[in-house]
Design brief:
Length: 161
């Protein structure tokens, strides 16, 4: 059974981008093929909630080989997109934080395939935000259908650059 939505998708205006890819690059260091976010749609710092999107295209680096003739977005990249989204939120709150890296995935469930072209809508909520680690609950949707849910733990790391 799917968990309760973190954010009501009807409350998110997908035509209103609050942070573009250029804004995202100012906060998190991911670049080139590993930029898993296209934009941020919603941020509530008080409730520590966020929504973002990823335009999933036929020309994404993985599409040709996963799987030839029938591309399916790898689940690990969906989880990475969710991690980058919550990393953006955490690093926006902790402006002096050099970097947050993956530490753990829990209760991850892939419910449907993500097939290009589509828009992946991601939502997240920070459960724990401390000087050592970040724990977030995340979900992803395509056409308002839940395709992913899980808990992601990140830890503060030295600046990778």
């Amino acid at each position: 059974m799917a968990c309760k939505p973190i954010i009501d998708l009807k409350a998110i205006d997908t035509n209103k981008v609050v942070a573009t890819i250029k804004d995202i690059r100012k906060v998190i260091p991911h670049r080139y093929e590993f930029e898993m976010l296209s934009g941020i749609l919603y941020v509530n710092y008080e409730k520590r909630r966020i929504a973002a999107y990823k335009d999933v295209g036929d020309n994404d680096f993985w599409a040709r080989g996963h799987l030839p003739g029938r591309p399916i977005m790898p689940g690990v990249l969906i989880a990475e997109a969710a991690a980058q989204m919550t990393c953006y939120l955490a690093m926006s709150i902790y402006e002096d934080c050099p970097f947050i890296g993956f530490a753990r995935l829990d209760r991850v469930r892939f419910r449907k395939q993500v097939v290009p072209p589509c828009t992946l809508i991601l939502t997240g909520e920070l459960e724990t935000l401390s000087s050592r680690h970040v724990i977030s609950n995340c979900q992803a949707y395509v056409d308002s259908i839940l395709v992913f849910e899980g808990k992601i733990t990140g830890m503060r790391l030295p600046n990778p650059l």
